[in-house]
Amino acid sequence: MSFDVSQRRVVVVGGGRSGAAAAELLQARGAHVTLTDSADAIPGADALQAKGIALQLGSHPESLCASADLIVVSPGVPLDVEPIAAARRRGVPVIGEIELAARWLSGRVIAITGTKGKSTTTTLAARMLAEAGFDVTAGGNLGTPLSAQVARSRPESIHVVEVSSFQLESTDTFHPWIAALLNLSPDHLDRHPSFEDYASAKARIFRQQTVEDWAVVNADDPLALETARGGRARRFDFGFDAPLPDGVTVEGPSIVRRDRGQAAPLLPVSSVRLPGRHLLGDVLAAAAVGCVAGVPPAAMQRAVERFEGLEHALERVAEIGRVRFVNDSKATNIAAARRSLESFDARIVPIMGGRYKGGNFEELRDVVAARALAVIAIGEAAPRIEAALAGTVPVERAASLRDAVRRAHALAEPEGVVVLAPACSSFDMFKDYADRGRAFRTEVRALVQERTG
Fold it and tell me: Of 44, 72, 92, which one is at a domain's C-terminal end?
């Protein structure tokens, strides 16, 4: 499909990484670009202006959006904010950054979404393809925005893209060759009106697929299966427990590929260096994507053996005496926090809290009662957490992450695990989950210094 923005007035809403990359791509394609952000300053403003991109900072004027020929929204910008909603009512096309970039890519797209595990699966799938010799890039919601990959995209390129519900809800023609749905549970209900709206946004990953494409779905997740139902693509799933005539699962000591019920080994489970059943599930998902894409088992095994996980995803930070500290700041919803806590057998002290974004903390009562010594609650959601977990284990509130780390350490001695598993977004106290994870590491390392003199 030909898509031409030459001499058109395009407004990019949101000045983060995705918005800046979209603005630069549009300017390179001949558009008259204005980037607008509600903040009074954005990173790289001078460089954007030097390229001829106009900036409108501090607000999103309705007149600016209404006079545009096209509006491109960053994933952090809701589609129902009034300047954008008003422009849509006037007939101005509104698309997301992922949709924009995908219209100009030359290569094929592997898109990965889900409530939890997107970054790990995206990174590992890309590494498997790279080990097999494919021309591959990884990015999207993780790392490099898709708009920044267009210039080097070739017909033989494969773009492995992490996509969030925010990115998918603003897609129209986005067409992945392989689309993976890892799992589905309530999340981002501070932005989506309901769980049904959230699931509907996720389902858009399959919307433009044809019978020539592939869908990879978690066969153990009923909500994921229901969301994927009705798609036209061929299926090749993954899972631990569900019957899988075709897909990737675990049999004994091996991760295997089943083809019409016949199993062939791909790699030993012992080569996986990630803790927890849910991270092993991400390995199965990446392997399923790799099977569809034509990655040989040996390349999969090399990638898995060299992969020790991502920052802020069950990341081991330090050990003081026999107390371990683990950073799972990416566990930003209740389902993710549950998987985090289930990665440890017992004697854990979770640090939980932040800005509430939906869900029921009472769903954590059983795993907290079975595994935790106590819980430290922080941030705006601390009262909700304390009320929901009352009667399971002691729940203490901390006014800062520094205080939380020290109190958790005292409660975890002599042989416990302190795990940052927030179950919430970070925006009450931090810039984002990565900022929160870095702050946790800093406080732990400061405590290490104190204890070692």
Answer: 92
What are the helix and strand counts (H, E) for the chain? 16, 21
Residues 290 and 436 in one domain: no
Share of the chain above pLDDT 70, in %: 99
Rounded CA separation 137/122 (Å): 10
Pairs from 55-62 (Cβ < 8 Å, separation ≥ 24): 55/15, 57/15, 60/13, 60/36, 60/84, 61/36, 62/86, 62/87
**Same domain? 253 vs 229:** yes
Residue 78: is the preceding peptide bond cis (ω within 30°)?
no
Q: 85 lies in which domain range?
A: 9-92
Token pair listed for 252? 């004994």
338 and 366 both lie in a single domain? yes
Rounded to 10 degrees, the C-alpha dihedral 431/437/442/445 comes to 170
What's the length of the chain?
453
Listed residue (21, 72, 76, 28) closest to 43, CA to CA: 21
Asked whether 434 and 426 are in contact (CB, 8 A), the reply is no
- Count CB atoms within 10 A of the CB of residue 234: 16
Pair 393, 374: CB distance under 8 Å? yes
Whole-model pTM: value is 0.85
User: Which residues have C-beta within 8 Å of that of residue 143, sequence separation ≥ 6?
Assistant: none
Q: Does the residue 183 lie in any domain? A: yes
Q: Using 50, 70 and 90 to split pLDDT, how confident is the model at 169?
A: very high
Token pair listed for 427: 């925006």
> 390 with 266, same domain?
no
Between 69-83, 152-166, 315-329, 398-412, the lowest mean confidence (pLDDT) is in: 69-83
**Alpha-carbon radius of gyration of the chain:** 23
Q: What are phi and psi of 339, to 5 degrees?
A: -60, -35
Q: What three-state secondary structure class fits 116?
A: coil
Residue 420 per-residue DSSP state: E
> Which residue in 238, 293, 301 sits closest to 273, CA to CA?
301
Q: How far, CA to CA in Å, does 116 sit from each of 185, 332, 372? A: 9, 9, 22
* 348 and 262 belong to one structural domain: no
Quote the mean pLDDT of the chain.
94
H-helix or E-strand spanning residue 76: none
Q: Which one of 92, 120, 135 terminates a domain? A: 92
Element (DSSP H or E) covering residue 121: helix 118-131
Same domain (yes/no): 329, 238: no
CATH of the domain at 369: 3.90.190.20
Classify strands 375-378 and 395-397 as parallel, antiparallel or unpaired. parallel
Number of domains observed in the structure of the chain: 3
C-alpha to C-alpha distance for 410 and 129, rounded to whole angstroms: 45
